[in-house]
């Protein structure tokens, strides 16, 4: 006896899709040939041995993914084996996809970054100016580390007047976030102008402590400006985004936190020269003004000015006396005129 191809494929479909071991599978592999259609997504999963399995992800499930998959992503796919009987092909029907390994860590880090940004922790308006001439600088750093010696040497070289307070912490490993937070709490008990958090370069795993959410939120509440000097130029952590200033090395942190004493000295000398020149110009201008005043008539012959003013005063007195005399004479004439008129109209004088 024989069976048709359709019957065989249908039997295989029934057997495979009904097999409990082929349902609810978690399959690890690398995405390739990712293609999106209106109905959903078709792609392959491959492993290091070159084995490949076809996968399908219907649109309603694809829309729920927490990331945008692409070729090369290493993922864990959850789904069931399904058979397309018409072609006799089996594939993995995927319900969820999750990034695996470093990809998953990067996704979690990106999601945390978005969360903290939404909470306003990275806003530019929160950034404070680093004091230009600090009296006291606090430093959170690993004990006996290269970063510690670099900061000590460069700060004292540039601005020896400043006081340095070290707050040692574990800057790598599972306990590092807690240790760094404890160091921050100790620093906040002191009078500090600027705080520096420093660590040398390393892998993303080495620097992961500085991506800890609790740590970043505590530093966002730091009462004084702080500089993040974690890793190298290419390394970025979430602490960098919440810091008032981010620099690439401990040496750069020392330069950002302190003035250069040579530059300050030269600036003071320049200002002293400017002040002296300004004073000399003031003295010269005042001398010229005095010389100009000394040439005026009042200073050359003050007696002549007195005599001239005396004569002008006497002339004005004479003119005033004449005016008063004339005014009084006019009043007398008017009075006599009024008396004459009164006599004329007096009834006793009428015949």
Supply database-style keywords.
351 residues, alpha/beta, OB fold (Dihydrolipoamide Acetyltransferase, E2P), Rossmann fold, five-stranded mixed β-barrel, five-stranded parallel sheet, 10 strands, elongated
| CATH C-level class of the domain at 124-259 | Alpha Beta
Distance between the termini: 184 Å
Give me the count of strands.
10
Fraction of residues in helix: 40-55%
What fold name stands as the CATH topology of the domain at 124-259? Rossmann fold
Q: What is the N-to-C order of secondary-structure elements (H for helix, E for strand)?
A: HEEEHEEHEHEHEHEHEHHHH
Rg over CA atoms? 48 Å
Mean pLDDT: 91
- 3D shape: elongated
Q: For this structure, what is the CATH homologous superfamily of the domain at 124-259?
A: Response regulator
Notes on the structure:
Among the domains are: 5-102, OB fold (Dihydrolipoamide Acetyltransferase, E2P), CATH 2.40.50; 124-259, Response regulator (Rossmann fold, 3-Layer(aba) Sandwich). The strands form 2 sheets. It has a 5-stranded mixed β-barrel. Strands 7-6-8-9-10 form a 5-stranded parallel sheet. The mean pLDDT is 91. Strand 1 and strand 2 form a beta hairpin. The N and C termini lie far apart (184 Å). 46% of the residues lie in helices and 21% in strands. It has 351 residues and is α/β, with parallel strands linked by helices.
Helices and strands, with pairings:
Elements: H1 5-18, E1 25-36, E2 40-46, E3 52-58, H2 59-62, E4 74-84, E5 89-99, H3 102-118, E6 136-141, H4 146-158, E7 163-168, H5 176-187, E8 194-199, H6 213-220, E9 226-230, H7 238-242, E10 245-246, H8 250-257, H9 261-294, H10 297-300, H11 302-345
Parallel strand pairs: 3-5, 6-7, 6-8, 8-9, 9-10
Antiparallel strand pairs: 1-2, 1-4, 2-3, 4-5
Helix pairs in contact: 4-8, 5-6
């Amino acid at each position: 006896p024989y069976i048709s191809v359709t019957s065989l494929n249908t039997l295989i479909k029934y057997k495979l899709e009904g097999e409990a071991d082929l349902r609810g599978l978690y399959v690890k592999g690398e995405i390739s040939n990712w293609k999106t259609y209106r109905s959903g997504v078709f792609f392959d999963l491959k492993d290091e041995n070159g084995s490949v399995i076809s996968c399908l992800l219907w649109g309603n499930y694809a829309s729920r993914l927490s990331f945008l998959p692409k070729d090369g992503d290493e993922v864990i796919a959850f789904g069931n084996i399904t058979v397309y009987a018409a072609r006799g092909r089996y594939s993995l029907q995927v319900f969820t996809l999750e990034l695996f390994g470093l990809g998953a860590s990067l996704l979690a880090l990106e999601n945390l970054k978005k969360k903290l940004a939404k909470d306003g922790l990275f806003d530019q308006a929160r950034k404070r100016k680093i004091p230009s001439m600090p009296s006291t600088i606090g430093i959170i750093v690993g004990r006996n580390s290269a970063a510690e010696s670099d900061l000590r040497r460069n700060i004292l070289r540039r601005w020896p007047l400043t006081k340095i307070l070290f707050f040692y912490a574990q800057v790598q490993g599972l306990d590092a976030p807690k240790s760094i937070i404890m160091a921050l709490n100790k620093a906040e008990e002191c009078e500090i102008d600027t705080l520096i958090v420093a660590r040398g370069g390393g892998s993303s795993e080495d620097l992961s402590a500085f991506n800890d959410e609790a740590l970043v939120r505590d530093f966002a509440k730091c009462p004084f400006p702080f500089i993040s000097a974690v890793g190298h130029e290419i390394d970025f952590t979430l602490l960098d985004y919440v810091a008032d200033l981010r620099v690439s090395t401990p040496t750069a942190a020392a330069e950002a936190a302190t003035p250069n004493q040579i530059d300050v000295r030269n600036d003071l000398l320049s200002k002293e020269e400017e002040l002296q020149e300004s004073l000399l110009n003031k003295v010269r201008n005042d001398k010229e003004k005095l010389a100009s005043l000394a040439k005026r008539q009042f200073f050359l012959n003050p007696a002549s000015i007195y005599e001239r003013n005396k004569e002008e005063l006497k002339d004005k007195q004479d003119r005033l006396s004449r005016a008063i005399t004339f005014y009084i004479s006019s009043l007398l004439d008017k009075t006599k005129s009024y008396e004459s008129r009164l006599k004329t109209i007096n009834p006793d004088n009428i015949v």
